[in-house]
Amino acid sequence: MSDAIYNIIGESYTTNRTADRRILKIIIDLLNLPAGKLIVDIGAGTGNYTNALADLGYRLFAIEPSEIMRKQAVPNGNVAWIPGLAESLPLQDASMDGVIIVLAIHHFSDIRSTAKEVARVCPAGPLIMLTVDPRESEKFWFYDYFPEIAQHVLKTFPPLNEVINIFSGIKHWSIQAIKFPLPYDLADKNMCAGWNRPEIYLDLVIRQNTSGFALASSSVVQRGITLLENDLQSGKWDKLNGHLRRQESFDAGFRFLLFRR
After folding, report:
1. What is the mean pLDDT of the chain?
2. Closest CA to 167 of 218, 91, 208, 110
3. What's residue 17's pLDDT?
4. How confident is the model at residue 2 (pLDDT cuts 50, 70, 90)?
């Protein structure tokens, strides 16, 4: 993905893409490393999860290509920010104790090169990845309003098995896959976070902080927003999907992957 798109979705990113406490807990549990260990966050964005780990005593290298993203990062004494790409990490061999990739792999141009770089800088793991496979999702009403975005998502997010095969094949790592149904009050407002609160999609700033909306044409977005707004006002959305407002969680295809030797 080009720097221009990173810069578009980077505006006001820290406002809406805050670290969710449940995502953070799973990352910590899967890392299973004591405080003080050195972790690289690849595709760190504005550093919401980076800083959350740093606040717990871990030392972090945050790799992020977008200058706008890096400029929004809150300074933290345990975090070193480095401009760079996942496919060519500016880190020494076997220099990391752990790796995290949080909702970023779909932005990488070459997953196989990324896997080789991860194995180079952290040969034994652990690598904790949070990714999305829309093919694993429950039926999601969102795509009825934005079918073009649905097609883009299918093309952009690699199938889970493909990601697993690429990474596990590099070092013959063991793999554990864990479902992460999105909670009703997810703090990290990614494109699926409004599964039970469709009103958030009417917020221009929230839309700008997701690559799906940022990459779609304005006519596609406006057509879907107009339809959604009309259905909310008429009560049609709640008639069809109102039960979701009472659900605790929704499986949108989010999966944690743990790789280690």
Report:
1. 93
2. 110
3. 74
4. very low
**How many angstroms separate the CA atoms of 149 and 87, rounded?**
26
Closest CA to 1 of 39, 45, 35: 45
CA separation for the pair 57, 55 (Å, rounded): 5
CB-CB contact of 80 with 102 (8 Å):
no
The residue assigned the tokens 């609160």 is 197
Closest CA to 103 of 200, 182, 3: 182
CATH class of 3-140+151-189+248-260: alpha beta
Q: Establish how many alpha carbons lie within 13 A of residue 106's alpha carbon, considering only the half-sphere containing its beta carbon.
A: 22
Domain boundaries, the chain: 3-140+151-189+248-260
CB atoms within 10 A of CB 121: 19
pTM of the model: 0.91
